[in-house]
TrEMBL record:
Highest taxon of the lineage: Archaea
Protein name: Translation initiation factor 1A
NCBIfam families from the UniProt entry: eIF-1A, PRK04012.1-1, PRK04012.1-2, PRK04012.1-3, PRK04012.1-5
Sequence similarity: Belongs to the eIF-1A family.
Keyword field contains Disulfide bond: no
Domain S1-like, first and last residues per copy: 7-81
Biological role stated in the UniProt entry: Seems to be required for maximal rate of protein biosynthesis. Enhances ribosome dissociation into subunits and stabilizes the binding of the initiator Met-tRNA(I) to 40 S ribosomal subunits.
Gene name, Swiss-Prot/TrEMBL: eif1A
Phylogenetic placement of the source organism: Archaea, Methanobacteriati, Methanobacteriota, Stenosarchaea group, Halobacteria
Single annotated GO MF: RNA binding
Cited InterPro entries: NA-bd_OB-fold (IPR012340), RNA-binding_domain_S1_IF1 (IPR006196), TIF_eIF-1A (IPR001253), TIF_eIF-1A_CS (IPR018104)
Species the sequence originates in: Halobacterium bonnevillei
A Pfam family annotated for this UniProt entry: eIF-1a
Length: 95
């Protein structure tokens, strides 16, 4: 019996203040440019707890939390693996 049966994985979904986004550009200094599912382009910050453990590249699908006080900025809270991003696209959560 194999674990990779092509079945659906339970993925982390956005909380009420989080949105899906796709990384469009690497800006350096732990920052990336993202295109969010709500149609806005934002500069997102990669927090210290993710910097060395999770590598984020262009075209990755991430979950961001926009800042309350500055809407053009956000924090990256999660990165999806390629297979997880494909599943999100198939289920219609992202374009």
């Amino acid at each position: 019996m194999s674990d990779d049966d092509g079945g659906r994985k339970n993925l982390r979904m956005p909380d009420e203040d989080e949105v899906f986004a796709e990384v469009t550009d690497m800006l350096g200094a732990n920052r990336v440019r993202v295109r969010c599912a709500d149609g806005k382009e934002r500069t997102a910050r990669i927090p210290g707890r993710m910097q060395k453990r999770i590598w984020i590249r262009e075209d990755d699908v991430v979950l961001v939390e926009p800042w309350d006080w500055q809407d053009e900025k956000a924090d990256v809270v999660w990165r999806y693996e390629k297979s997880e991003a494909d599943q999100l696209r198939e289920e219609g959560h992202i374009e």
